[in-house]
Write a structure and sequence with these properties.
The chain is α/β, with parallel strands linked by helices. It is built from 9 helices and 11 strands. It has 2 domains: about 120 residues, 3-Layer(aba) Sandwich (Rossmann fold), CATH 3.40.50.2300; about 100 residues, Arc Repressor Mutant, subunit A, CATH 1.10.10.10. Strands 2-1-3-4-5 form a 5-stranded parallel β-sheet, with helices on both faces. Strands 6-7-8-9 form a 4-stranded antiparallel β-sheet, with helices on one face. Helix 1 packs across helix 5 and helix 6 crosses helix 8. It comes from Kurthia gibsonii. This is Response regulator transcription factor.
């Protein structure tokens, strides 16, 4: 399991990294929110240990960002012990909450409870693309490709309905709900990003209608 540890105290990140290594996990360390977001966007992270007090941004903001675009469990670390602070963290999407000071073993045990269950993964297949639907990552010819939450929702919908054409409005409604006021043109950027990551020919543009999966890719004709 790839674990991102975000805390500005080096001693905390070092000792937690040591315990996760002993547990057979791969730890990534960040001492700032900016670096944490960079790691999340560039690496397949399975779980985040997140301190609320960071030098450049609030942990709550990172939590909200992750829960909006990714499906990654978060354990919050904080020195705040008031119940209102805990409830606020859970409301933002935190999956667990650990109050400082703590023993590293406690964090590892709590992380184990949130470990993705490999045996319960549902797989979608389209040509050389394999998707585990409870993750934001896809496998393309044995290589893991990371998608944002919105990109992941779009490609799953298209693959589940490979012969159906979806308009921009259809995809916006799927991502953000029927009442969304988001400009449907944002879908074009999502499609562009998906094509860049998995191949330009995978998603077909149907002029005047929208997007669908390219069946020639599924049949390996391209």
């Amino acid at each position: 399991m790839n674990v991102l540890i975000v805390d500005d105290e080096e001693k905390i990140t070092e000792i937690l990294a040591l315990y996760f290594k002993k547990n057979g996990d791969t730890p990534y360390i960040s001492h700032t929110g900016e670096k944490a977001i960079q790691i999340i966007e560039e690496t397949s992270i399975d779980l985040i240990i997140l301190d609320l007090m960071l030098p450049d941004m609030d942990g709550e903001d990172i939590c909200e960002y992750v829960k909006r675009y990714y499906n990654i469990p978060i354990i919050m670390l904080t020195a705040k012990i008031a119940i209102d602070d805990k409830l606020k963290g859970f409301h933002m999407g935190a999956d667990d909450y650990v109050v400082k000071p703590f023993h590293p073993k406690e964090v590892v045990v709590r992380a184990e409870r949130l470990r993705p269950n490999q045996s319960q993964k549902e797989i979608l297949q389209f040509g050389d693309i394999k998707i585990y639907t409870n993750e934001n990552n896809i496998c393309l010819k044995g290589k893991t490709i990371h998608l944002t939450q919105h990109e992941f929702i779009i490609i799953c919908l298209l693959i589940e309905n490979p012969r159906q054409v979806f308009s921009r409005e259809d995809l916006i409604n799927k991502i953000e709900g029927i009442d969304s006021e988001t400009n449907p043109r944002v879908i074009d950027q999502h499609i562009k990003n998906i094509r860049k990551k998995v191949g330009a020919d995978v998603i077909q543009t149907v002029f005047g209608l929208g997007y669908k999966m390219n069946e020639k890719v599924m049949k390996n004709e391209i």
